[in-house]
Design brief:
alpha/beta; glycosyltransferase; 17 helices; NAPRTase_N; ligase; 6-stranded parallel sheet; globular; nicotinate phosphoribosyltransferase activity; 5-stranded antiparallel sheet; 11 strands; single chain; EC 6.3.4.21
C-alpha cells in the first residue's frame, strides 16, 4: 500500500496558505530543505523506496469527490477549488540524493514556484517516516491501541477535564497511513466530545471529522522576502492573511522570529482582529501568561481569545496547561506524534523548512533551541539585528 493515497492526505493549513499564495503571490519561487534531527538514522538505505513513493505521490490527482469536499469548506473560494482540479505535484521540483557530507543521511531539497511546491512538505515527511518504520520495525498495533486507550482514559476519566478538547496534528510524523486512519475513529469513540477533529483533510473527509488549521511558519517566513521591509514582514504577512480571509481562520502564529518581536508587531488592531494565537516553541506557560497580559494591555478581554498549544504535547502536558489556563481564556490543543506514532519504536524527529524565497534567505528564529533552519549564517545575524534579538538566539 502506498504511503500517500490522496492529495488531501496533508494538513489543512497547507490548503489555506496555498489559496492565499494563489491570490497574492502566484509567482513567488521558494526552496525547502529536509533535516533529520535524530542522530544515527541511516535513511540512505531507504532512498530507492522513498524515491518510488514520491513517484506515486506525483501521479495523484484530486478526485471529483475530494474537490466537492474542498469546495464545500466555508473559506475556500471557487477559483481555488477550480485550480486544484488542474493541480498535480511535479517531480521536477524535488532533488533527492544520498548525502555526501554525512554517511547514511539523505539530502532532499524542493525548489520551485511556491504555489506548486507548498503541498510537498507534509506527504514527503509522512513518506520518509513510513518507509523508515516499514523497513526497520515490526508494527505492534495491539500495543498502539492499548496506549491510545490509556491516553484517552487520562483525559476522559479524570474530573475537571470535561471541557478539555484535543485535535490530532500528527500527519507528518505518523507511524503509517494505515495506523493514522485506524487510530482516529478509536480516539473519537474513546473521547467523545473531548476529541474535536484532525488537521488531516483526507481523514477528516473519510471519517466525518472537522479539519483544523490556519497558517504555518513558512507563511510568515516568506514575507521576509516578499514584504517591502524585513522589519515589517510579520505585519505585512498578518495583513495579507486578514485580506484573504476577512476575519475567518483567525489564529496567528507567534514564534517565527521570537515572542518579543511578535508582541511588538501584534498591536491592538491584530489583537482585536484575530481570534487567538498558536504556541509552537518555548515555555508554553510563560508564553500563555505573556499573551494574555498582552491582550489585556491592548484593551481586549483575554477570556474572549483562544490560545492554541501544539508544541510536542502529550496528554499529561495538555492537562497541566488546561488546569493552568482554564477560565482565563479559550483553549485548544493539537497533539501530534504522541497520538500517531506511539506503538513502541522511537519516532523520528524530521522536518522540512523553507530556507529561501525569491532567491533570498528566510529563517525561523525559534523560541526553542534547535528548531530553526537557515543556510545563511550572515542572514541569521542580520535578522537578529533587525528584530532586536540577542546574538545567541537559537538557530
Amino acid at each position: 500500500m502506498a504511503a500517500i493515497a490522496s492529495l488531501l492526505d496533508t494538513d489543512l493549513y497547507k490548503f489555506t496558505m496555498m489559496q492565499a499564495v494563489l491570490h497574492q503571490h502566484p509567482g513567488a519561487v521558494v526552496q525547502y530543505r529536509f533535516k533529520c534531527r535524530t542522530p544515527g538514522i541511516d535513511l540512505a538505505q531507504c532512498i530507492e523506496e522513498i524515491d518510488a513513493e514520491i513517484d506515486a505521490l506525483c501521479a495523484l490527482r484530486f478526485t471529483a469527490d475530494e474537490l466537492a469536499y474542498v469546495r464545500a469548506l466555508r473559506f475556500v473560494k471557487p477559483d481555488f477549488a477550480d485550480f486544484l482540479g488542474l493541480f498535480h505535484l511535479d517531480r521536477k521540483y524535488i532533488d533527492l540524493r544520498a548525502s555526501t557530507d554525512v554517511p547514511g543521511e539523505i539530502a532532499l531539497d524542493i525548489t520551485g514556484p511556491w504555489l506548486h511546491t507548498i503541498l510537498f512538505e507534509v506527504p514527503l515527511l509522512a513518506i520518509i517516516n513510513e518507509v523508515w518504520f516499514r523497513n526497520t520495525t515490526q508494527a505492534d498495533f495491539a500495543e498502539g491501541e492499548r496506549r491510545l486507550q490509556a491516553k484517552a482514559a487520562l483525559l476522559r476519566d479524570v474530573a475537571g477535564y470535561e471541557d478539555c478538547r484535543i485535535a490530532d496534528y500528527g500527519t507528518r510524523r505518523r507511524y503509517s497511513q494505515h495506523w493514522h486512519g485506524h487510530m482516529l475513529p478509536l480516539l473519537r469513540d474513546a473521547l467523545g466530545d473531548q476529541f474535536v477533529g484532525t488537521s488531516n483533510v483526507h481523514f477528516a473527509r473519510i471519517h466525518g471529522m472537522t479539519p483544523h488549521g490556519t497558517m504555518a511558519h513558512e507563511y510568515l517566513q516568506a514575507f521576509q522576502a516578499l514584504g517591502p521591509r524585513l522589519r515589517d514582514s510579520q505585519v505585512v504577512a498578518l495583513d495579507s492573511w486578514a485580506h484573504e480571509y476577512r476575519g475567518d481562520l483567525g489564529i496567528a502564529l507567534s514564534d517565527v522570529v521570537g515572542l518579543d518581536p511578535f508582541l511588538r508587531d501584534f498591536d491592538m488592531y491584530f489583537c482585536k482582529l484575530f481570534d487567538g494565537v498558536r504556541h509552537d516553541s518555548g515555555d508554553p506557560f510563560v508564553w500563555g501568561d505573556r499573551m494574555l497580559a498582552h491582550f489585556a494591555d491592548n484593551r481586549v478581554d483575554p477570556s474572549s481569545k483562544i490560545l492554541v498549544f501544539s508544541d510536542g504535547l502529550d496528554i499529561d502536558k495538555v492537562k497541566r496547561l488546561h488546569a493552568y489556563f482554564r477560565g482565563r481564556c479559550k483553549l485548544a490543543f493539537g497533539v501530534g506524534t504522541h497520538l500517531t506514532n506511539d506503538l513502541g519504536p522511537t519516532p523520528l524527529s524530521i522536518v522540512i523548512k523553507m530556507v529561501r524565497c525569491n532567491g533570498q534567505p528566510v529563517a525561523k528564529l525559534s523560541d526553542s533551541p534547535g528548531k530553526s533552519m537557515c543556510d545563511d549564517p550572515g542572514y541569521l545575524t542580520y535578522l537578529r539585528q533587525v528584530f532586536g534579538l540577542p546574538a545567541d538566539t537559537a538557530a
